[in-house]
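A brief tutorial aside. Many learners find it easier to grasp structure tokens once they have seen a single protein encoded end to end. The record that follows does exactly this for Conserved oligomeric Golgi complex subunit 4. Read the sequence first, then the structure, and try to relate runs of similar tokens to stretches of the chain.
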Amino acid sequence: MPSALPSQSQSQSQSQYRSSHFATSSSSSSSPAAASALRPHTLSPSSSSSSSSSSSAPKLASPSTSSSTGSSTGAAAAAAAAAPIAPVAAGLPSPSPSLQQVQSITNLAQVHALIATLEAEGVVIEQDLDALLGQRDRIEAKLETLQFLAPKLQVLENDAKQLHGTISFTCRLAENVSGKVRELDGAQSNVRLCIKRVEDILDLKNCVEGVQSALARGDFESAAKHIHSYQSIDPALLSAAESTTSATSAVAAALGDDGALDSHREHRSPVQALQEAERVVRVTIAEKFAAAASAVASGRGSTDEITRFFVLFPLINLHEDGLEKLSAFVCGQVVQLLDGKFRELSRNENGKSELLVLGKLFTAVAKTVDQYQPIIEEHYGFGYLSVLLRRLQFECDRQAQKILNVFMTERDFRKKVREVQAQMTRVQKASATTNDAIDPRDVDIQLVEIALFSSHTQSYNKYMRKHAEVGHTNGPLLPSIASARLNFERFMDACELNKLMHELVGNYIVMEEFYMKHSVLKAITMDKHEPGTLTSSGVDDVFYVLKKCTRRALSSGNVNIVCAMINHANTIIDSDLKADLQAKLRANVPSVSSDLKEMFQSRLTFDVGSTAAALRATYMVLLNNTEVSSEYTVKLMKGLEQESLSLFTLESEQKKLESLLSDMASTGNSLRHLLQSAMEQFFFASLLPRIKTALDALSSVSYVIDDQAFADNDVSDPFVVPFVNELQALIMPLRSMMTDSNYDSLVGIVAQYVTAQMEARIFDMSFNALGGIQLDKDLRALTGYFSGMTQKTVRDRFTRLHQICSLLLLERVQDAVDHWNSQLSWRLTPSEVLKVLGLRVDFKKEEVQRVRL
């Protein structure tokens, strides 16, 4: 009991201190809001004291009373004392303790905990109050700013109202000005219309007077110009003038004024007078043009009169009539020019009369176009030339049809085409004979003529299309003129001239194919070798025919002919020439003979019986023919490529040509492969046995030698000298029988075989240091010999052997690694290098096995 009293007094003093502290803080704040915010969270000293007294009163009871309550009461008190007070989170005020919590306090620890909670809550409240009071100056400054801006807002409102008034006034003023401008513009338009009407009336009066005066003195140019001016007058004015005249006549008739009525009848309206004058001018100009055309046709007039009246038709709005009349005139001139030429066709014996007449026709058309094109474009306008071109083309079709019919009749062309087709069918069935009825020379002459026909026609077509495109503009054209210009390309493609040429070109391709194939087969059949030449006559004859036919196709200027002939030429080279060479090479493969050297040295001619030498000579000629054929094929392809791609510039045409020329290049490569195969076959059949026998001597030569043996080899070489002599006897006689390219290829094949066989034999031999030096000397001698035999390099074929020799020349096994690293490109593999090192008898196997490359 005595110990509880100090605690109670201490609690009361702390409560009084906090109450006085809170009261001081409250009194220091002048804001009612702050005071009201503080009020719910403060405790007065009396309440704090009473609470403490009431809460501690039960604990200060006598011990007897406490003990008389029994064990249940003591347990409840102990549980209440043990119940903790929840701590307050830092910075966050906790709610004030309720009355039940205060009443449940049973010991001093709970009192202290409650006091700590309340103190923490007071600290947080003080911080909030300080923050609110710290913002007072800023808020008051903003309020003062708002009070300062209030008068200015009034000024801004007044200025805005004044600006609105100014803008409204300006808008009304602009509307008034715009209205007056529109009125002035309307008045100006009316004035202009009035002036135009006055001018048109004056022009109408001048036209009436001028056209009558011009017709009276025969000045048709002036009359046409007056009519042109009349046609350009506003139709509304003409209608008004006509209506005025009609109204005047009606008034005179209604008033019964016979004199006025007769006067109006005698003096017609200007419109009626001009309409009558227009009719007279049109009729007169047409008659004058017809008279001028008749005079020129009879040889009494000049084309200047034609031009004089032709340029007047556009002035009187008769464009199509003028072009039609001019077209009829120039077509008549063309017909008149060709009539005499047709009469000369039967008397002309040079075989090219039809071609000359066709050239005259195209020249006449071109001269006509050149003469009248500038006149039409100047007086009629751009685009009207196509009308004249169409009329001329119709006449050209008729005349060209006559010319080509004469050509086909005089040459009996259609019959020959049928005979050619029949003979080609027999050739395909392998039933053709040398006594065919058609002479290729006659076909050759007609092919030349048809190629020239095609060339002239192609040039003419390009000329017409080019002039139809000149002067195209976006200006207005008559519907018929526009249609003629747009359809001119299709018109030219479908014209009778091109239809006839298309038929003629188709027959040309058939006849050219016959001529080409017949001539090539004849050249192959008559193939003959002249002594002293490397090739036979057949190769030159075949490619002469092919070059002649393809060049003739190029001269035609027709891409379809050129493509067809390139395709036929390639087919003949691949199917006929290559097949013939392949069959002859297969049938004339030479075989090994015991006296081979003597037979080569005999140098027998091509036509000598069936001896071995003649057989080999024949085979050499066939090899040369194959090599020359491959070379000629590539040369023919390049020549055709250069000429055709420069002649035909359209992308579609060049693509077709490039595809066909690529096929011809492939044919040349196939001939090259045939040559390589035949060359290897000749080597294996004729040269290999003797060369292999000579190489066998290498296996019997020892390369484990001493100084004496090395010196003896310098005096009497056991391998290289005999081997070179054998090669000299085998290969050198062929030098004069083969082309340079074939001879170089043969030497390359021999060198390839020799190096491979020597390498195989070397890996079965043993060497010492002097033996390696001896092998290096032998190899250098062989390399020099083969290099001197051919113009092409053969050193690359000896590369592996030279690398083997370089390894055999090493002084120590340990030098192999440095030697391996010193060269960038090795033809030998690491395992082969170790195998070569193992050939040295003076190198230990253990040291060789330890080498790491």
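Self-check: The first helix runs from residue 4 to 28. If you spotted this yourself, you are ready for the next section.
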